[in-house]
Write a structure and sequence with these properties.
single chain; alpha/beta; Rossmann fold; six-stranded parallel β-sheet; 5 helices; 8 strands; binds pyrazine-2-carboxylic acid; binds zinc ion
Amino acid sequence: MASEPGFKPALLVIDMQEDFCPPNGSLAVPDGRAVIPVINALLAAPTLAVRIATRDWHPADHISFASNHAGSKQPYVDTCTVVNPSNATETYETRLWPVHCVADTPGAQLAAGLDPRRIDRVLDKGTDARVEMYSAFYDPLRRPRVSDSGLADALRAADVTHVYVVGLAADYCVRSTAVDARAEGFVVYVVNEGTRPVDTAAWGQCRAELEAAGVRVVSKDGPEVRRLYGEAKV
Ligand code: VGL
Ligand code: ZN
């Protein structure tokens, strides 16, 4: 297919893993499994230059697991403070979760039914026990940065211009990845039908915050996605 000048799209499939999918995932996102056919259709889009899947890939002692904290911390309810291991003055509060996506366990595998044939690369994140890392690019610490996946450099090396983000969960890893992709200078779309939030009631607010950060939340049937199939230009 003739490529359209100025349009080199990448698809980021975020954390489409068994632990995030009902009915058995330990951190099941409501209706999370429903996005798999939508993502498979996107993976087949002929103009995509890059198709990357990420996995949340935690050690058993990861800081985000409520059970790793003293004082009977409650998953979904309590938070903990993450401290930059190289700089005790830089901290952030993060939500605690049930044990999920422990490296090499069945729950950490890519979700059954996700089409692996067209995935160019699988990128693991959240591998450092000391920090929470929602974004596929880096953790939120900056002085200095603790983990950088190299994704921004990889996308730039491939001359990517537009980044389409799907997967789970919309209000955590999809959101952080999309915001960081925008800050890295890409045109960024979250495909609404290709993602689901943990907090369904707060998705409207989260969506507004994404738009305020310069990320567009678009429909799978809209012109931005049709463009991936070489159809409508926008
Ligand atoms: C995620 C909570 C904890 C996500 C990862 O992939 O959105 N959410 N770890
Ligand atoms: Zn996680």
